[in-house]
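ok here's Iron complex outermembrane recepter protein, seq below lol
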Amino acid sequence: MRSAAQTTSISRLRPACRAVQLALGLAAATAAHAQGAFELGTVTVVGAPVPAAPASETAIDQQAIARDGRDTVGAAVALLPGVALSRNSRNEEMVYVRGFDPRQVPVFIDGVPLYVPYDGYVDYGRFTTLDLAEIRVAKAGASLLYGPNTLGGAINLVTRKPSRAFEGDARLGFASGGERKAAVNVGMNQGLWYAQLGLSYLDADSFPLPRGFVDHKAQPTDTGSRRENADRTDKRLSFKLGLTPNATDEYAIGYVRQDGEKGNPVYTGLSKSGIRYWRWPYWDKDSVYLVGNTRLGQNNVLKARLYHDRYSNRIDAYTDASYAKLQGGTSWPSVYDDRSVGGTLELANYALSHHELRVALHYKEDKHRDSNPENAKAPVKDYRDVTTSLALEDTITLADAWRLRLGVSRDQRDAKEVYEWPTGSTSATNGVAELVHILAGGGNEAYAIASRKTRFPTIKDRYSARMGNALPNPNLRPEVATHLELGLRGQPWGGAQGQAALFYSRITDLMQNAYVPAPTGTCGAGSDTCAQAQNIGRARHLGLELSLQQELARGLSLTGAYTYLARRNLSDPAVQLTDTPRHRLFAALSWLPSDTWELRATLEAETGRKVAFAGSGRTAYRDLVGFGVAGLKAIWKPRRDMTLDFGAHNLTDKWVELSDGFPLPGRTWFVNGTYRF
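and the structure came out like this:
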């Protein structure tokens, strides 16, 4: 946290305007900004020096994450309105934000992009939350300062920054399925410098199957009480060393390493061709980055990010459920070796009265290598993309209670190296406008957002033949989305904090499969047509988000987040939009009968989710059964620095799926202990 001297010094950089002061007060009351958050790791700031979330972002802090035992990033962001989880056939935890998938909503850590260069995805189940200060989810109005490809928003994982000379915590937990977790975080702040270290370990042998699983499934491969091939191990190291040489400047170097290993539970759905016997012997990622904030004169602040990110994994495919014999051929094992290097320079200028002007230049080079080290005949496929962006945003104080944010950016992607295809380039223009009005009394605000966002097709989108089942298309154009949003947030009545948003998105040039004549030697013997991704799709997303925190009585509180989402494929209704629920609700009731005890009941419910599966020669769809899953936990605090919680998820042992053929755990018991120092 900044000292009083730092706050006073930086405040001279800004006009002393009433609107910013009101926005600060409102944001402090309504945004879940975490104490000890790494301020340099945030991208958008309203009324600095306090890094509060603007209208376009929602934040969830470590306290809220820990309260509901959300140990992975995917599980944590699912607490927020507008966010839904799914799972794909690779046993990856997918996050959808207002219907936009992980390729369209990239993930960052302290503002540094983490998504996989090859396909744009990231497995949110591999990233633990035990060393984070907060998670920020930006939606339609996501700042252009994040950089390219934020078609549907952005998710930023903000790490911790120590605020005391010595501080930390240690955690230990156990759960059904042989789950074990341990974590320790230690921080030191010595004024001139600070250091933060985080270590975490999350391991499980399996998970319990829900009651009636075998009776529900068309072709069950798991006949016992536990899910087969569902083990996982995730180890995480994070380290940060920072320097604060004076009241206004700050520099930090950070390192994050993720080592993972996992099984892939066998598909048990309706398709006859969806069964895979896969394992990941490693799923590793590490990032090193340098972030700095430098004051230049009285009216300028320069912020810089430099980073190097490495991602490597291996998939082993087996012939049957014994996992004894590997599949051969040129495709197996599948080994990825990806690298990203890049940086951002951002200049903030406060010389003009009532303006906060920011200019950012982004550069990112992505390298992907696809190889099979165990088959000399398999080709080594190298790809290299360079993406650049120039963004300009201005936050203007129009009057005491009015604030306007305008932004524009120009992005370009150049394919510098491609396996068996010509190189090329494409570009896109983005824009955002956000108008905020502080309502009478200063406790509430209304806002309106309009934006145009794009996403470049990934290396996989353009060049993958999908194991011989498709034809690449290097000429794919960027997807485009136009967003409109109206919202209110603040204190609707006494003892409450809430937010409501209406949103509408229109997507054009959406990438969808078309069937074209198959060139000789492609798409299998005897096939005269071939699937190819083309910019032929048009879609519409519209919906409503509501969230509320209400004090019902002394020691009794209610939290709720509801989302209504309607998606429609406008160009081809036969190709349905899948994997997101029409209605989703998360609610929690907390009761504190004494200073040392808290009882907490939760409910997650959804309905209206469509999923796809391979039918007889075509893609088929079905509606998943809606569900309501209850949880209950007790939290005991025998001392201010110690916490013990225990309880159960899916208390009624309900059978639940988020995607076809991949059930979620049944009733799961857990116990966790935390010590803070």
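fwiw Confidence is low (pLDDT under 50) at residues 1-33, 47-51. kinda neat tbh
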